[in-house]
Design goal:
The protein is mostly helical. The chain has 2 domains: 90 residues, Endonuclease Iii, domain 2 (Orthogonal Bundle); 100 residues, Hypothetical protein, domain 2 (Endonuclease III, domain 1). It contains 11 helices and no strands. Helix 2 runs antiparallel to helix 8 and helix 5 crosses helix 6. The longest helix has 19 residues.
Amino acid sequence: MRESRKKRQERAAEVVRRLAKEWPDARCSLHYKTPHQLLVATILSAQCTDERVNQVCKPLFRKYRSPRAFASVEAPELAVDIHSCGYHNQKARSIVGMSRAVLELHGGQVPRTMEELVKLPGVGRKTANCILGEVFGVPSMVIDTHMIRIMNLLGFGKTRDAVKLERELMDLFEPAEWVRLTHRVIEHGRAVCIARRPACARCVLADLCPSAGKTA
């Protein structure tokens, strides 16, 4: 039986309530002190764990203390510093290019709009949403692999296209919940709804999830 929009919204609201109770302290797991540092860390986090990124960024941010410092280094030298994050050559080029653009086009200040952020080298919509929501308090959703997988399992989406799913979820959930919901879904995906071995038996969303007990 097809779920009505009203029922779907009620179920979504209950998901928000339960995740808030289960993960009240969920927040961005990347360590940073400035918007530019979060941009760097987010670029490094592609295909890499946040734990590894934080380990790399600790000495990295001591060595390069400003957007100008990152803009002044040559990409091959930076690649050595970030080698353990994987795809180091590509990420180094992105970080240097992004830093030069921030310096030359925005006076050293990370821009505050989606349109400006996605024009920076190495910055896609997911990274831009992270900056907008985490740093500038703009309601936004970071659609990562956890969000795609879990929201599809919950029946709130039927696509792996991040942009399409973002639009669907923004229409379903209240804007005030977008940023916190993303962090809580990520925590839930790491600890309970694990990709290859979801722990449905101890999931607080099991009775709300049409996929509970059906995934391998």
